[in-house]
From TrEMBL:
A Pfam family reported for this protein in Swiss-Prot or TrEMBL: CHAD
Family annotation (Gene3D superfamilies): CHAD domain, Hypothetical Protein Pfu-838710-001
Superkingdom to which the source organism belongs: Bacteria
Limits of the CHAD domain: 217-498
InterPro entries: CHAD_dom, CHAD_dom_sf, CYTH-like_dom_sf, CYTH_domain
Positions of the CYTH domain: 6-206
Organism: Gordonia soli NBRC 108243
Name this polypeptide is given: CHAD domain-containing protein
Length: 498
């Protein structure tokens, strides 16, 4: 059986051993409950020596007993506390062999080159009561657990405790039932859980990765490190999605790498430049590798959009889309291979080390808002100079078009520098970022129309298409010309607000 995935939404409580559970048939939407059924569960949990998984609220286990024997990976699924659980049964993966690749792939960015080892052994006597809704459909389960846990870490200890778990089944958005169950269980004697998971309680305190945030009167160094941590977390979050070529994942991971670079280059005096130069270079390389996959992805999307509602032949479809799909397949394989390299994992380690122990530069103690003002002013000055240079060029010339592309990149730099001030929560920086984004988007649309028209001309020049397809190409080219003119008009309007 292949891997299966589901969203886990549950409540967890501590309770005295042997304490009777309440009758949950009174809960909203519950029409009946099953007879309690008891199972013996034995699980071994795996992590790195540094507890990289547990630190990120991830659990990986091999469990026997119960109705879902096999390997289980649980990961956070957003701020709500829900978790995404991936399961692989023993009919697919060995009970005694290595951790299945399907479960290590989503956490490669956390494990990196480190080895997985057993860190805890937990045995549970679980009594399960299923709650049914209308039509006798299961809507939730109550698990009454008697737990025996043994840490396998150095100086680990043996523990025993009891807990209740209430988990939604099927409709994991049933907040009314979840809240009512929480009240009923606490009224019956349940207490707030002392740990987020059985593993956390078994192995004790772990260095949890917390959401980056700023304190009062932050310095430039505080802001830069906070931003680096935010975008590092984004890069880590999109890593597993790029590995399966999920929609928009390459784009978002590339954006994360570019934003990390923008922090290093946009605020150069805050961190020691020599110390961060290598990280900046490696991020640049990663962005370029992801860029190849992203560019082909964009061309596929554009090709499909251009041919929408057009009577295109298979030959025209192949010329605009099929070749790009082959290019994308090659590019995504190259990106995925790079993400399995020791070089990539060394980059992630270097970013983590930078966050944990930054080497300050000469402007580290400058007020955060002062550093942002300086960075934005620098971007604004460069854009003003570029616009002045643009005015001296012949409109429509190749040089003029290339200069517009330079202004687009400058606007993106300004946007990223202003976005870096998000943790400061100041309206003036959001206003700057919005104006820069409008310029970037307008010039991006113009650049797309320019590239599209060049591609159309190349395809037409091959002489391989029939009259009908040539007519379609001409019509598409006219639309692209109009879109380009409209984009220039939007740019001129937005540029006045920079």
């Amino acid at each position: 059986m292949p891997a299966s995935e589901q969203l886990e939404v549950e409540l967890k409580f501590d309770v005295d051993a042997g304490h009777p559970a309440p009758d949950l048939r009174v809960l909203p939407g519950v029409v009946a409950t099953s007879e309690p059924e008891t199972f013996a569960l034995d699980a071994t949990y795996f992590d790195t020596e540094n507890l990289d998984l547990a630190s990120n609220r991830v659990t990986l286990r091999r469990r026997t007993g119960g109705t879902d024997e096999g390997w289980h990976l649980k990961r956070p699924a957003g701020p709500s506390g829900a978790r995404r659980e991936t399961q692989i049964g023993f009919d697919t993966a060995s009970a005694d062999g290595d951790v299945p690749d399907e479960l290590t792939l989503p956490v490669r960015a956390l494990i990196r080159t480190r080895h997985l080892i057993p860190v805890a052994a937990i045995s549970t006597s679980r009594t399960v009561t299923t709650l049914f809704g209308a039509g006798q459909h299961p809507i939730a389960v109550l698990c009454e657990d008697l737990v025996t846990a043994r840490s396998l870490l150095p100086n680990g200890r043996h523990q025993e405790w009891s807990e209740w778990e209430f988990e939604l089944v099927g409709d994991t958005d049933n907040t009314k039932l979840l809240k009512a169950a929480g009240r009923a269980l606490q009224k019956a004697g349940a207490r707030e859980a002392s740990s987020a998971s059985k593993l956390a309680r078994a192995i004790g305190t772990t260095p949890d990765v917390v959401a980056p945030h700023l304190g009062k009167r932050p310095t430039a160094l505080d802001l830069v490190i906070t931003d680096i941590a935010i975008h590092r977390n984004s890069l880590i979050a999109y890593d597993p999605l790029v590995r399966i070529d999920a929609p928009d994942a390459v784009h978002q991971m590339r954006v994360a790498t570019r934003r990390l670079r923008s922090i290093l280059t946009g605020y150069p005096g805050v961190l020691d430049t020599e110390h961060t130069a290598h990280i900046n270079d490696e991020l640049k390389l990663l962005a370029r590798i992801l860029g190849d996959a992203r560019d082909s992805e964009v061309q596929i999307e554009i090709g499909a959009k251009l041919l929408r509602d057009e009577p295109a032949s298979p030959d025209l479809h192949a010329a605009l889309i099929d070749a790009e799909e082959s290019a994308h397949a090659r590019a995504i394989r190259a990106a995925q291979a790079a993400m399995e390299s020791t070089r990539y994992f060394a980059l992630l380690d270097a970013i983590d080390e930078l966050i944990a122990d930054p080497l300050p530069g000469p402007e580290a103690e400058v007020a955060a808002s002062e550093a942002v003002d300086k960075a934005i002013a620098k971007s604004r000055k460069k854009i003003a100079q570029d616009r002045a240079d643009l005015s001296r060029l012949r409109e429509g010339s190749a040089e003029w078009e290339e200069h517009l592309h330079t202004i687009r990149k400058r606007a993106k730099q300004m946007r990223y520098r202003a976005d870096a001030a998000d943790p400061l929560d100041k309206k003036k920086y959001r206003t700057v970022a919005k104006a820069a984004k409008e310029v970037q988007s307008a010039l991006g649309d113009f650049n797309d129309s320019r590239i599209n028209r060049a591609r159309l001309a190349e395809i037409a020049a091959t002489g391989s298409l029939g009259p009908q397809d040539m007519f379609v190409l001409g019509r598409i080219d006219a639309r692209q010309e109009f879109d380009g003119e409209r984009a220039i008009s939007a740019y001129r309007s937005a540029a006045r607000r920079l």
